[in-house]
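Why does residue order matter? Because the sequence determines the fold. Keep that principle in mind as you read this record.
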Amino acid sequence: MFLGVMRGQRPLIVCYNLFMGKKILLINPWIYDFTAFDLWLKPLGLLYLASHLLNQGYEVELLDCLNRLDPDCPPISRGPRYLREAGCGSYYKEILPRPSFFRHIPRYWGRFGLPFDKVKSRMEMLSSPDLVFITAGMTYWYPGAVVAKELSQKIWPEAQTVLGGIYPVLCPEHADSWGFDYVVKVADPVLVMKELGGILETDFQVESYEDFFSLKPAFFLYPRLSYTVLLTSLGCPFRCSYCASGKLYPSFWHRPTEEVIEEILFFKEQYGIKDIAFYDDALLFQAEKHFLPLLRKLAELSPGFRFHLPNSIHPAYVTPQIAQLMKKVGFKTLRMSLETASPLWQAKTGGKVNNYALERATRYFLDAGFTPQDLEVYLLFGLPGISEEEMINSIKYVKSWGLKPRLSLYSPIPHTPDYYKIGNLPPDEPLFHNKVAFLYQSGNDSLYQKLQEELRGS
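Structure:
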């Protein structure tokens, strides 16, 4: 057994294995898209899976085609300076022909990540794995997983391929059509481990979320890290009309505070990183039970991290104490979700937030020492039914508070109420879920470009 993994320490040689189990290659594939940026993007589920596989005696290797710090990745230094200083950055992009149905879109289509030839050469140098596990995030990123599968089957005809991730959960029939040996169509980590246990004929002894999170994610599989990511809760209690979180994780659960603190300190000791991004969908929900104790302990320890919130937080749950502690412990990238300033559309999309909650949270953050420039507000651009006037008014409203509006492009997500309101999306092609493609299909591209230029100039 990998005792080092059980204790949260880095094993000296990954393939050291008392059980000499099967060899498994984990692949985080390329992104095929018009645009992509490494905004603290790591395959966290795959890294947890790696730890559980190692713990059961499997030999595990990781091939992350999106690892910008990989020696085979050409250096790219684009993107805002503050994000680059926090470990983020642009991906290398290989320009490819656009899919035929995207020919009208005046954007370059490409493969983001490690150069294809470098990945192919590296795979050819590896000894044959018994199984290849491939993850797929966004539904419209599935081409990367399919190409990785085809390459694996060509190089190792005897290896079995397993597909998992968000894509096969939301598009199961489409995922079935590509010829993977196994397709995992659940996202709940306990159910995932049950399915994989059946495939591998292994009892992972994961009966609860506590069991799943008892091992730390295997970040040691990366030779270098510029940041790590952290998940302190699972799921979301809200059911917004544009989001599929409830489909992926039906329940909501918090990790024990002590366990999260131990993991944060472990990141510092083992990897020497300063930047940590929270992956939670509802970080501030039930804060008295979870987030506040975490903040208090971090304030006591003063570990010297810079924390980031790429998924944003719920303004209604911000309190003066939360704002003050977030400032004290080092939260840097701070984003709040508003989506729209229209009370009518706030109610239509789930009633999660209102303008008063945003204004109150803003006052708390400013009183705690954050500046208006520190606070970004997500606005959902292009939600079907919202008028141009309402979108413009939302931007003006956020700017009236001196805050930075950040336009988040709407992406049609299967199994959400808003998805079924669109009506004209081909049901058998997830590429049409692409946010840039939908922007042009909906005719909002000129307005979006105009507003982005205004925001850049403001």
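The chain is about 35% helix and 15% strand.
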